[in-house]
Amino acid sequence: MALALPYPALHATHGGIWLASAQGEVRGIGRGEAAARAAETPMIVLNAAVTASRLGIADFSGLDLLELFAFVHPARFAVPTPAGLARALDLSPPVDDARASIFLIEAAQALLGRMARPEDWPEAYGAYNSAQSLARLRWPWSGPIGQILKSPARPERGLFARLPEWDEAGARGQPRNVHLDEQEVVQRLSALVGPQAESREGQRAYATANARAFDPRSGEGRPNVVLAEAGTGIGKTLGYLAPASLWAEKADGAVWVSTYTKALQRQLDKETRRIFPDASERARRVVVRKGRENYLCLLNLEDALQGGFQNRAAILAQLVARWGMYTRDGDMVGGDLPGWLPTLFRRAGSTALTDRRGECVYAGCPHYRKCFIERAARAADNADIVIANHALVMILAQRRADEGQPLGRLVFDEGHHLFDAADSTFAAALTGQETIELRRWIIGPESKARGRRRGLSARLSDVASYDEEGGLAIEAAAAAATLLPSDGWLGRLGENLPLGPIERLLSAVRATVYARADAQDAGYGLETDAGQPEPELIDAARPAVEALEALMRPMAKLRQRLAAVMDDGPDWLDGQARARIEGAIAGLTQRGQLVASWIAMLARLGGPLDPDFVDWLAVDRVEGRELDIGLHRHWLDPSRPLAETVLKPAHGVLVTSATLRDGEDWSGAEARAGTVHLDNSPRHLSVPSPFDYASSAEVLVVTDLKRGDVAQLGQAYHRLIAAAGGGTLGLFTAISRLRAVHARIADRLARDGLPLYAQHVDPIDTGTLVDIFRDDPRASLLGTDALRDGVDVPGDSLRLVVMEGIPWPRPTVLHSARKAAGGGSVYDDRIVRARLRQAFGRLIRSAEDRGHFVLLGAATPSRLLDAFPGGVPVLRVTLDEAVARIAGHRAPNRPATGVAAGAPESARLLPGLGEQ
């Protein structure tokens, strides 16, 4: 029997707003009435943040079904739409938006009903105590939940008592030297794809060629490198997991598989179930390894639960604590915490629950032996397959090589992003935000604000009392750190009142940027190259270098004293103290390298430019508001440090992607992967896609839109999406144009039953936006670079990709330098072709997919059109013709929506599409 609820429900979309009474009456209302009702009456909603956005109000305080779902089913995901929630709860989805308002009440009844049957509720443990804590915070759902949940017969342990401790394990030995036989690789691949899978010669050739990346290397610094380009549909993931898993089994070693996007990490995690079907074995053999900032920090959570968080942030902390009891690995970013949960609370504390400031106290933490981060790091040491990301692999490769334990076998999937990942990893930035974080790490809290940040003195008090020289080094480092920027630095620079040598340097940087940069009123970031600096900037650099050197000396001294304490082995140096000191040594090493890079950057200011680096000055701004100021240094060719720190220490490296090459030439791929800096040459492999692109896709270049006319651009997007009946991915090169187009067309499309979502508009994380898009074939999604690759939406949900123009690279200081060194316009063309290939790759993800790729660019050079697969028809057409062609290929069960009448005769069917 359904539980009676006294609350109305509100469902708001771009197409209208519907209010359902507790008695089941539904009516459409306007925004004004909806906002007024929301302010005076508790109402059930689905995603309060999105509802507030639809109503045009700043905030919405209601009974959010997503919060209730997160309480009832922590560590479970549901697509945050009425239809998605219905599937997660085994309910019938609403047939239209009006019916959706009634459904919200039904869904609430279903969730509450599950709590009334604890024997059928797998996540019942801990719910009562969590509900009591949420009731004290006046969580809106506490009333109905309190009427259902009963006190457990026996006291239940909380999260911190329930989490298991990880165990120390001995160091893993060196892997055995083995050579993979091709027949063994084929047999392993056959076992992974299963007996029912169709035979794919390309996949077998790909897998056997990749096996050579696992051979013993012929000499130091001469890794076996395979560059493998595999077109969409080859089965790339299993094509390298087959030899990787076989080598790990035979050699008793670990293979690190690295990706650029979290979406591919999730896919890889699922694919490894084929290798290890048993969940317990798979948990030991496969580890997803991410940076510290991704995991729930138990000490931060404890501080939040004990009063460190207030209001809405405190409710989030309680829901995260409940999730922590059921999570697989504590991963808050891309793991089993629903991506939509933190967005329900805006910016109210989710980032503060992870270690984003490098403030971990390691063994000094009372939860150290239960820490999710430490558990993942130790599990990775003994795993067969470690799934990570490019940046983390590069950092760990350098660290492990220094320790004499290099990462021996590496697979870089999404290898076309290797250059960009190296560019970010090996860069340096001397900015206000970076320096104030260093100050806080050394000194600790300097105000009465709550929090658990601890400086070096607090973290190493036992060392200071035991080792006099170490204690003096801590004091000297803390004194030197007072010369770094402190709280309020950005405001002081805006008023030209800097304090200390680093703030005076940043003030001179700011003045130089504003004097030299263009587009000062555009509201976006400003930059200028560091050549020919003003005398004031040079003068400010000298005392800044002295201040940094004064900081670096005691940091180096302290690192030496900590190493000496470790060697002395005093009585108090137990396992936890040793781990804490090792953590401090690692932190001092990392930050010492950071300070050294700052000093090197400033030392060359005003002198001859270093040809290996590109230096510039920047003021980071968002909508005219300054966020950071500083100096930046990037390698002109970041593949050089990539080769030295990652490739050369390894034994074997596989770099793979669907788009490694530019045309038939491997030289660009070799340059961007860093293999040109090796003494030996890589192996090359190219396996074309098995898809018949000529009959499944069509590229339309629209020639009659006026460049820069946002009204025309919006009209074009509206007509194209309507012609396709939704299922459109719209890609933009500028956020401002994305927002302008969305504002013009979202309501009109919604009224025709075509929901439109957008990055940088909807208060929803990107991963969830893609999940919503994938779940609804009539939905469309607008986005920027993050959606250009790494998005896998096979089937009918994606049948049209629209790019607002040629994706030329932004003419930044860094890009201009690389363009000059890389051949001028040829360098730009290579980047654009790669972006077009990646964008087109979103369209056809399976043999059954059909669709159109539309480029809104009248001036598109013909030389760029070979970016698309051979055989794909590429036509230059008017917007009317494009709309007609797309509408003519729409599936019969998808009615026309808003398509302009009078389609021209040239709108003939694309071969292979007309029968769909």
Task: Kindly describe this structure.
By secondary structure, the chain is an alpha/beta fold. Helix content is 44%, strand content 12%. The strands form five sheets. Strands 8-9-7-10-15-6-16 form a seven-stranded parallel beta sheet, with helices on both faces. The chain has a seven-stranded parallel beta sheet with strand order 19-20-18-21-22-17-23, with helices on both faces. The protein has a four-stranded antiparallel beta sheet with strand order 11-14-13-12. The longest helix is centred in the middle third of the chain and has 34 residues. The chain is globular. The C terminus is likely disordered.
Mean pLDDT across residues: 89
Question: What does the overall shape look like?
Answer: globular
Within the largest sheet, what's the order of strands?
8-9-7-10-15-6-16
Rg over C-alpha atoms, rounded to the nearest angstrom: 29 Å
The portion of residues forming beta strands comes to 5-15%
Number of helices: 36
**Oligomer description:** single chain
Low-confidence stretches: 892-916
Give a short overview.
The protein is of the alpha/beta class. The protein is built from 36 helices and 23 strands. Strand 13 and strand 14 (625-635) form a beta hairpin.
List strands and helices in order, with pairings.
Blueprint: E1 9-13, E2 16-20, E3 26-29, H1 31-40, E4 44-45, H2 48-55, E5 63-64, H3 65-72, H4 82-88, H5 97-115, H6 127-136, H7 142-146, H8 159-162, H9 182-193, H10 201-210, E6 224-230, H11 236-251, E7 255-259, H12 262-271, H13 279-285, E8 286-288, H14 298-308, H15 311-324, H16 340-343, H17 372-381, E9 385-389, H18 390-402, E10 409-412, H19 418-425, E11 428-431, H20 432-443, H21 456-459, H22 461-466, H23 468-481, H24 489-494, H25 500-516, E12 526-529, H26 535-568, H27 575-603, E13 613-622, E14 625-635, H28 639-647, E15 652-657, H29 667-673, E16 683-687, H30 693-696, E17 697-702, H31 710-724, E18 728-731, H32 735-751, E19 756-758, H33 766-775, E20 780-783, E21 800-803, H34 813-821, H35 825-840, E22 851-855, E23 874-877, H36 879-888
Parallel strand pairs: 4-5, 6-15, 6-16, 7-9, 7-10, 8-9, 10-15, 17-22, 17-23, 18-20, 18-21, 19-20, 21-22
Antiparallel strand pairs: 1-2, 2-3, 11-14, 12-13, 13-14
